[in-house]
Design brief:
The complex is a heterodimer of chains A (about 120) and B (about 180). Chain A is of the alpha+beta class and about 120 residues long. Chain A folds into two domains: about 40 residues, no CATH class; about 70 residues, no CATH class. Helices cover about 30% and strands about 20% of the residues of chain A. Chain A contains four helices and five strands; from the N terminus they run βαβαβββαα. Chain A has a three-stranded antiparallel sheet with strand order 3-4-5. In chain A, strands 1-2 form a two-stranded parallel ribbon. Chain B is α+β, with helices and mostly antiparallel strands. Helix content of chain B is about 45%, strand content about 20%. A four-stranded antiparallel sheet of chain B has the order 2-3-1-4, covered by helices on one side. In chain B, strands 5-7-6 form a three-stranded antiparallel sheet. In chain B, α3 crosses α4. Classes of the chains: A alpha+beta (about 120), B alpha+beta (about 180). Chains A and B meet through α2, β5 and α3 of A and α1, β2, β3, β6 and β7 of B.
Chain lengths: ~120, ~180
């Protein structure tokens, strides 16, 4: 029987089903751990192209990367302008194209912080 | 197969379950995003034989989710050199790269707006203007396929608002 309050770190690329850890909670409280999702450390996507786009976002004042881990969504990119966030999938069909899409969103919203400051 | 990039504006923001439904309908090569003016759209990179085929397949998948429909089709200003070559139609990606690096051409190619590892995003408006003025390229101000699809989607929205969708379909079959 599984102890009720067991926590494990979720870092690394190991599949929780293979480890027999279904139902355990991770320290970061990642809901997807319970679904047998491949987990990487917090704030990182499993595709490096997308992580490279996140690096640009973290340097952009108006944008924030938010982890959601719900359904097919890994997370979203939110803008201070209040426009609908950009959906980041867990398993996009083509990670390179998805990263390009993220950078296009950055291009569209990069100036939003300036206009918020000005208003 | 060529990957075509375009955006399809939706009638409203999808709810959480609709986001997953869109993904499962096959739109895992598109992403949902919103503009500063409150519009909600899908940014798409769809592999297809032609731009019109790509737009048609995306719209067909959107229509599988009840309550969501397209209200417009357009293009993003942000492009990679590969995207720019596809939009241009008369130059290859290699040709644009040589112009961008200054190996060929008069120099002064527009700088990328954003760079991340090996992806550089340029402004299509700046590139197309530079190619027109400095290289004498003949580039239409808008993609004719995207403009056609946008016009058809907007006519369909008007027909939907007036409850004349069947009538429009009949008219379109007669004209086409």
């Amino acid at each position: 029987m599984m102890p009720a309050a067991q926590f494990i770190p979720c870092g690394g690329y190991r599949h929780v089903n293979e480890l027999g850890l279904q139902g355990w909670k991770c320290r970061s409280n990642h809901a997807t751990l319970l679904q047998g999702c491949y987990m990487v450390s917090r704030g990182r996507h499993q595709h490096n192209e997308i992580n490279a786009a996140f690096k640009v976002i973290r340097k952009t004042r108006s944008l924030t990367v938010v982890e959601i881990h719900k359904g097919h969504r890994w997370g979203a990119i939110e803008c201070v302008c209040g426009g609908d966030p950009y959906t980041v999938w867990c398993t996009p069909r083509n990670p390179g194209n998805h990263a390009r899409g993220i950078l296009r969103y950055v291009n569209t919203h990069a100036a939003c912080a300036d206009s918020e400051d000005g208003s | 197969m060529i990957s075509w990039d375009f955006r399809v504006t939706l009638n409203r923001a999808p709810a959480d379950d609709e986001v997953d439904a869109l993904f499962e309908a096959g739109l895992d090569d598109c992403s949902i995003a919103g503009g500063p003016r409150g519009d909600v759209y899908l940014t798409c990179d769809r592999e297809a034989e032609s731009m019109l085929d790509a737009i048609a397949s995306v719209i067909a998948q959107i229509r599988t989710v009840p309550g969501l429909w397209p209200v417009g089709v357009g293009e993003d200003d942000g492009v990679t050199l590969g995207d720019a070559a596809r939009r241009h139609g008369g130059r290859t990606q290699a040709s644009l790269r040589q112009l961008a690096t200054g190996q060929r051409g008069p120099g002064g190619f527009p700088e990328p707006l954003i760079e991340a590892d090996n992806i550089s995003i340029y402004s299509w408006a700046e590139i197309s203007e530079w190619l027109r003025t400095r290289m004498g390229d003949d580039i239409p101000s808008e993609n004719p396929d995207v403009a056609l699809a946008d016009a058809l989607v907007k006519v369909n929205c008007r027909a939907r608002a007036a409850h004349r969708e069947d009538g429009l379909r009949h008219l379109f079959d007669s004209v086409a």
